[in-house]
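Let's study my pick:
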Amino acid sequence: MNIRDFYIGKVFDAYDYFGAHPDKNGVWFRVYAPSAEKISLIGEFNQWEGQWMEHCENHGVYQLYVPDAKPGMLYKYKIYGGGRVTDHCDPYGFGMELRPNSASVVVDLSEYKFHDRVWMDRRQKTYEQPMNIYEMHAGSWHTNPEDPNGWYNYAELAEPLIAYLKENHYNYVEFLPLSEHPADVSWGYQTTGYFSPTSRYGTAAQLKELIDKCHQADIGVILDFVPVHFAMDDYGLAMFDGTPLYEYPNDAVGHSEWGTCNFMHSRGEVRSFLQSAAEYWLEEFHFDGIRMDAISRIIYWQGDPNRGVNGNAVEFIRYMNQELHRRHPTALLIAEDSTNFLKVTAPVEYNGLGFDYKWDLGWMNDTLNYFKTPPSERPSHYYKLSFSMDYFYNELYLLPLSHDEVVHGKATIIQKMWGDYELKFPQCRALFAYMYMHPGKKLNFMGNEIGQFREWDESREQDWDILTYPLHDAFHKYIRELNRLYETQEALYSKEYHPQYFQWLEIHAPSKSVYIFQRGKEKGSIIAAFNFSDQTWEDHPCKLSWKARVKELLNSDWDIYGGQTPVPSKKTLTASMSDEEYILPVTLSPFSARIFLVLS
């Protein structure tokens, strides 16, 4: 690491220098604390009695070589500064104790050897491939009856998770933050160990094994990353050297709405810290991408456009993204951003933020609000549902129905649907058909695929037992088939960010709540027809410019998925001439979607 570059925010390998680094005879410890008066290294290797660290040439770096230290040992830094003495975990530590304990752990990062070279060599950013992401919380997907906390470790998760993803046609998995955090209820979004895989689920080597096995099964792995704020716990980054080293000194911008400290992105050392953390997960663990949380708080002060653009933070994110692209050309950088800020997914050289994809939270809000609305009121909201295509080509969008939509009294996806228990199922099937036929990559949180009614709780596993109920079992089979269609029909993912490959065929039927669109062109394209009303529409005319012959691939109302329509023996239809245009008559059941493949 170049120390000068570290100070000015240009470093991406600070973890190679700072932290605890074992060699054959002992361990080097280094920490950055420029305002500390002195620092004592305490740990198992000195019976927690402490050894004074050497202050290196007045650069704010303290170091010590300990011959008796070895991997697996616990340690902390006792920092004297600002009129107080505080025991801190290592900001660059590669492992930590299980909460509520907070010591860092000496880790040998070279312990695990990857076997995923084939995957890494052919990895792509998926612009022209399907990307179907299963978002999950590692501790509550399934619980382990043999563990007092109910957790499987990373390595134990690999076999059942990979089998489930393959069976259900998800080709990416995205984990909520796996960096160390003190409170289970924060789900990892309030971090204390930016370089430490949470010990809840095991070791760094076990996490590498999980990722490696996913890659060998052709499954990409994405990690949630939090570059905006960090946990306030006194053993973490807050007031690290007795002064606000990582956070703003001004409370007006120094604390977030989540009761955390905001990173001071104008400070070079902070930039180098965060850039190195992002690099660490991509380089050392072979993650295929990072989804960055709360980017609106990077763009605007406290996420409020009325406060103006936070120029220093925007400069930071642009530089970090540009350099990460250079270092990892095939890794994915994804923004969770709720703002209308322009060019989030444009390259930095074109004055963009440099992300590959942006979550389309506008699509998510408009769509879910529409399906909460009684059918009698949907005609007046007709164009709100189609509004997403008015701006879709402004960015490279990903459509999310994430963990944020199934917690905190918001109700789960299926529970949000208007009406009683049985009416929710056909609407939810139609909703997911609309999502998967709509342009944009896909993300669903665990539980969405089984029609879970109970809100997600990080302390409980998903309600897998509901699959013994016929409607839920049929719903799960339907989602699996929808995922398979998305994975196998090229028109649903190829050229999806090109306007000429999407066409509305029916966008002026508000009284019927009917929408029809085409993905792709001519032979091999997909025609998707939707009826979001509670009425049946016989032979609704789908107007085409050619005499198309189509095959029905999926009907959300088929009885095998819990609907009322028997699966027909003949699934082909042909458009016929009427008044100098071709008409494909499509009968639409209440709350249904029909998906057709154009054969000619």
Q: What stands out?
A: DSSP finds 14 helices and 30 strands in the chain.
